Amino acid sequence: MAVRLFEGKEQAAAYLQYRVSPKHFNLAADVGCGSGQGTILLAPYFTKVVGIDISPTQLEMALVQSHPPNVSYRQGPAEELPFASGEVDLVAAMTAAHWFDRQNFLREADRVLKPGGCLALVSYTMDMELEYGDVSNTLNDISKEVLSLSLKP
């Protein structure tokens, strides 16, 4: 049986407000990409996808897997991304952000993201707080709002 979410007016309004519009973008960075499973999932939506991980062994595993031609991998820390300021459409961290130096990673993500770009942190749990300067409370309020609305019947 399918789960029916976002049917009430509050849920639909939050979905409209926070959902990224589907279209094709230029550059995505999958930070802490590990062996690249999430990196490959981004490929149909971006001209170029770069998986970044600090572990050479993880990247070796990513490289031996079949991947689309628009996907590449680079070694490096999450806190020092190999992109120019304002170059990236999406910075994603899929079940990896808990390993990063949060303040430095968020500062770096902010640096490389284009105006209107998206930071997507995927986790196994929502039991976390985001900290980033004077917008920390706003980030946490948005996360809690979307989570609470998605759990309503």
UniProtKB/TrEMBL annotation:
Classification via Gene3D superfamilies: Vaccinia Virus protein VP39 (3.40.50.150)
Gene Ontology MF, one: S-adenosylmethionine-dependent methyltransferase activity
Superkingdom in the source lineage: Eukaryota
Matches recorded under SUPFAM superfamilies: S-adenosyl-L-methionine-dependent methyltransferases
CDD domains named in the record: AdoMet_MTases
Positions of the Methyltransferase type domain: 30-120
PANTHER family attached to this UniProt entry: METHYLTRANSF_11 DOMAIN-CONTAINING PROTEIN, NOVEL PROTEIN-RELATED
Protein name stated in the entry: Methyltransferase type 11 domain-containing protein
Species this protein is from: Mola mola
